[in-house]
């Protein structure tokens, strides 16, 4: 059995669909981790025990991948350490200080397969900025998709993880593989979820505070909207950066720190991630973003670290 472990967002899902199509995989199983947590849980480790080959896509867990004992292809674009495990082939442009906007683009270049999924992965990770890239516009034009439709598709695909439906995230890969991209715009289960999510995000954004050009907002929600809130604050409302804190997310606390490209020249997110991990939190990210999940009693210490970088 070929086992694919992928991130729960649009980039992870489209990267998986690209891999399956490129390699013409039959009898594969795809799984995502507990949503919001950068780790392999018991369910994943049990699946690895029965797999003959493992693929890890768009999921920044080098520590977990070091532990696997079967041949593994690890494709990512996040900042991470180089894997020492001899069973792992690690493909990540960031190891050579090359920035890629999505894992979907890395997968497409690796296997020579480019389609709408490639573009959607990029749009999912960098939003409106994706339309500044020729590869995105070219692929969308080829598929007959507008910018608005691409953004809507990302919103729909992401709705599964935002409402914390792990099985629906995994099922989304099958939906992509079996249907036409345009048809997904009317996929009713996703449309219903997206409606509820939009309402929740608007409520949170309406309570934002400004601190030295940075947006700060605290809330409590069972929806995993924290990254969407931060993106809206930075990408649409043009803050220097955004610090979003969900203090009660299914018994845990979430912190999300997103910065604008100009701030990325000043703030070393790799350093931020390392310091947050030093607190015993589950943290990860890339050049412009850090996500953190921890027990509620650690969130204020994590916030203090972030505040040191606000300038």
Structure in words:
Strand 6 (209-211) and strand 7 (214-219) form a beta hairpin. The chain has helices spanning 10-23, 42-50, 62-65, 103-111, 116-126, 134-143, 147-162, 166-178, 188-205, 226-236, 261-264, 269-278, 299-307, and strands at 2-6, 28-32, 53-57, 72-75, 88-91, 209-211, 214-219, 241-249, 252-259, 282-286, 289-294. The protein has a six-stranded mixed beta sheet, sandwiched between helices. It has a five-stranded parallel beta sheet with strand order 2-1-3-4-5, sandwiched between helices. The protein starts with a strand and ends with a helix. The chain contains 13 helices and eleven strands. It folds into two domains: 2-189, Alpha-Beta Complex (inorganic pyrophosphatase (n-terminal core)); 207-307, Diaminopimelate Epimerase, Chain A, domain 1, CATH 3.10.310. Helix 5 (116-126) packs across helix 6 (134-143) and helix 9 (188-205) crosses helix 10. The protein is α/β, with parallel strands linked by helices.
Which of globular, elongated, flat, extended, rod-shaped describes the shape? globular
Distance between the terminal alpha carbons, to the nearest Å? Answer: 50 Å
Instruction: Give the CATH topology of the largest domain.
Output: inorganic pyrophosphatase (n-terminal core)
Helix content: 40-55%
CATH class wording of the largest domain? Alpha Beta
Q: Care to count the β-strands?
A: 11
- Main sheet attributes: strand count, strand direction, barrel closure: 6 strands, mixed
The proportion of residues in beta strands is 15-25%
Residue-averaged pLDDT: 96
Q: What is the second-level CATH architecture of the largest domain?
A: Alpha-Beta Complex
Order of helices and strands: EHEHEHEEHHHHHHEEHEEHHEEH
What is the radius of gyration computed over CA atoms, rounded to a whole number of angstroms?
A: 18 Å
Give the strand order, joined by hyphens, for the main sheet: 6-7-8-9-11-10
Q: Show unreliable segments.
A: none
Number of helices: 13
Structural class based on helices, strands and sheet pairing: alpha/beta
Any idea how many domains?
2
């Amino acid at each position: 059995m070929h086992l694919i472990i992928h991130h729960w967002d649009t980039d992870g899902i489209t990267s998986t669909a690209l891999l399956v199509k490129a390699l013409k995989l039959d009898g594969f199983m795809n799984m995502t981790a507990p949503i919001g947590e950068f780790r392999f849980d018991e369910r994943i480790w049990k699946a690895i025990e029965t797999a003959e080959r493992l693929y890890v896509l768009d999921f920044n867990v080098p520590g977990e991948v070091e532990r696997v004992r079967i041949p593994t292809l690890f494709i990512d674009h996040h900042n991470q350490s180089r894997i020492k495990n001899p069973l792992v082939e690690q493909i990540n442009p960031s190891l050579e200080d090359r920035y890629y906007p999505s894992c979907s683009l890395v997968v497409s270049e690796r296997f020579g397969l480019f389609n709408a999924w490639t573009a959607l992965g990029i749009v999912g990770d960098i939003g409106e900025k994706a339309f500044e890239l020729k590869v995105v516009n070219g692929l969308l034009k080829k598929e007959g998709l507008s910018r608005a439709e691409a953004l809507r598709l990302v919103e729909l695909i992401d709705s599964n993880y935002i409402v914390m439906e792990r099985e629906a995230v995994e099922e989304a890969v099958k939906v992509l593989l079996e249907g036409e991209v345009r048809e997904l715009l009317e996929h009713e289960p996703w449309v219903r979820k997206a409606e509820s999510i939009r309402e929740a995000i608007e409520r949170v954004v309406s309570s934002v505070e400004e601190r030295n050009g940075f947006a700060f907002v605290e809330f409590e929600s069972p929806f995993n909207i924290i990254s969407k809130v931060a993106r809206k604050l930075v990408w649409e409302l043009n803050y220097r950066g955004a610090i979003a804190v969900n203090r009660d997310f299914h018994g845990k606390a979430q912190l999300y720190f997103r910065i604008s490209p100009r701030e990325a020249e000043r703030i070393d997110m790799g350093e931020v991630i390392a310091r947050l991990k030093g607190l015993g939190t589950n943290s990860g990210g890339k050049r412009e973003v850090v996500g953190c999940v921890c027990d509620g009693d650690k969130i204020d210490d994590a916030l203090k670290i972030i505040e040191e970088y606000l300038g």
